[in-house]
Amino acid sequence: MINNKKRRNNAIVNNVAEMHNDATWNKKGIDASTAGNYTFAIDAFSKSIELNPHEASTYFCRGGAYSKLGNLSKAIEDYSKIIELYPQLAFGYNKRGIAYDKLGKHQHAIEDYSEAIRLKPHYYDAYYNRALAYSKCDQYQLSIEDFNKVICLEPDHADAYRYRGVVYFLQGKDNLGYRDARKAHTLGNSELLEWAKGEENAVNSEGNLKLITSGNSHFNSNTNVNDKLTRTL
Question: Which residues have a Cβ under 8 Å from the Cβ of 217 and sit 6 or more positions away?
Answer without folding.
Answer: none
